[in-house]
Specification:
The chain is mainly alpha-helical and 392 residues long. The chain has one domain: Amino acid/polyamine transporter I (Up-down Bundle). Helices cover 77% and strands 0% of the residues. It is built from 17 helices and no strands. It is globular and about 65 Å long.
Length: 392
């Protein structure tokens, strides 16, 4: 993460042009700018299906506002509602493009009026909602069970594949390798410490994940639901069933799905910003650039939408269309981009540039970072790539 943000701040341009200029400065191969193209491609592919799932959260938030779940649906009723949503091409397309439009709206307004203003509202709201839901979870009588379920170690299940899977999840969760952090890095003030900034980001991301677990699983266990048996249906089938049986369940459900929508929104914004910045540098006005990029991803996502309905039998790489797009973006392009970023930052970038960006690190700390970036990170990322590709 430090390497990716470092490149963005050192270049002060879009990911593609930052890499191109820094490569020229280092008298290196100009093709290093392909890292930026790879990241932007991965971002567009992820956006194309991410907005579909994110659209479901909007649909459920509106459903709670309408009071449809107020009568306490059984699991079968909630399952029927979810099935009706995912089998309706028109509904899927509507919520998909609505989420694309919300994302484009924020990015089109620019960094200060759009992204910064949105994040200043969404992130505090996200934490406030999560803490409220965790407090409620403490009243269910299953909070201690949840703590045991989440934090009691079972080392018999920790294998090499487990660790590789965890690294892969970290890539997706922290948006590594998709050029979003590089794009944001271009706006980071020089006075800020990159290691401290990246540490705060990792801490915030982990905190949100832990709070989400502490909010969700007490409710799951309180109603004798098995989290392993539902998969994605845990969120869209099991939890609405549980919410309906709780006091203030409608409010709890509404808050939960609004929270999910906020979390998804903050992610989709970062997926669009890198490509938008590049198009702006090419002379295209920001609103049009954001619309072209977001709209293109939205149109591309139609194929993934149809994988739920008319094209459900179509297989690519042995997967349905959405899973195939996810495979290419998340399992191949993200780790490949991360590997290239580590190599570029560790070996290609001028030493003076690296030291300039990490001036707050002492000699020992800087040496450790350089060893990790040059030798340790590439090996670990290569393992993630090989695992995702099915080689190991």
């Amino acid at each position: 993460m430090i390497a990716e943000v470092l490149i963005g701040r050192a270049g002060r341009e879009s990911p593609i042009n930052s890499l191109l200029d820094l490569a020229r400065e280092s008298r290196a191969w100009r093709a290093w700018s392909l890292i930026g193209w790879s990241g932007l491609t991965a971002g567009v592919l992820i956006l194309s299906f991410y907005c579909i799932i994110a659209g479901w959260t909007l649909s459920y938030a509106v459903t709670y506002l309408s009071g449809l779940f107020s009568d306490g649906p059984a699991v079968s009723d909630a399952g029927a509602h979810f099935g009706a949503l995912t089998s309706s091409t028109s509904q899927l397309l509507f919520w998909h493009f609505l989420f694309v439009a919300l994302t484009v709206f924020v990015v089109a307004r620019g960094v200060e009026k759009g992204i910064e203003a949105a994040v200043r509202f969404m992130i505090p709201a996200l934490f406030l909602l999560l803490i409220t839901l965790v407090i409620y979870g403490m009243t269910t009588g299953q909070f201690m069970h949840t703590l045991s379920y989440l934090f009691k170690p079972d080392f018999s299940k920790v294998t090499g594949q487990t660790l590789i899977a965890a690294l892969g999840q970290a890539f997706f969760s922290l948006s590594l390798g998709m050029a979003g952090l590089m794009a944001y890095g271009a706006y980071v003030p020089d006075k800020l410490s990159l290691p401290r900034l990246c540490g705060i980001i990792c801490l915030a991301d982990t905190s949100v994940a832990l709070l989400a677990g502490l909010a969700i699983f007490p409710v799951v266990f309180a109603f004798s639901l098995d989290p392993a048996s539902y998969g994605p249906g845990l969120v869209f089938v099991a939890l609405p069933t549980a919410f309906a049986q709780m006091a203030w369940g409608d409010l709890y459900g509404l808050a939960f799905f609004v929270l999910l929508a906020f979390a998804a929104w903050s992610s989709t914004i970062s997926l669009v910003e890198g490509g938008t910045a590049y198009l702006v540098e090419k002379g295209i006005r920001r609103p049009l650039a954001a619309t072209l990029l977001g709209g293109g991803a939205g149109v591309l996502g139609i194929a993934s939408v149809l994988s739920f309905t008319h094209w459900s039998e179509v297989r690519v790489f042995g997967r349905n269309i959405l899973d195939a797009v996810n495979f290419v973006a998340s399992d191949l392009l993200l780790p490949l981009g991360g590997l290239s970023i580590a190599i570029f930052a560790g070996w290609i970038l001028l030493e003076s540039r690296r030291r300039e960006q990490l001036a707050d690190l002492g000699t020992g700390s800087y040496a450790i970072w350089k060893v990790l970036t040059r030798f340790v990170a590439p090996v670990l990322i290569a393992l993630v790539f090989l695992s995702g590709a099915g080689v190991i």
